[in-house]
Amino acid sequence: MQEYLHLTREVLPEMARLQDTCWPVVNDHCFQRIVLDTICGGVWYNHIARPAYRHLTDEQAQAAVNLCREILAGEADLHALNRQSLSWRGKAAA
After folding, report:
1. Burial of 41 (0-12, 13-18, 19+ CB in 10 A)
2. Alpha-carbon distance 48 to 94, whole Å?
3. pTM (2 d.p.)
């Protein structure tokens, strides 16, 4: 759990602020939304009680960490993941 929080609260937002990253989000809560929606296959709070970090199963936490690592390695398309997350929420990507 701590690794998930570290990655979404610190590492990913720091990377997003680099000029050459060109990621669609920069804030920690946006990374958490995208990662949690992706591992749940829909709006995360329809699947996990709030606050999510207290209610993730070990399997969900590991899936979240793995996805964060894939994003950092450029193996996951953050733009596509963000678009899908927003679509599940009935919103259009900016």
Report:
1. exposed
2. 26
3. 0.95
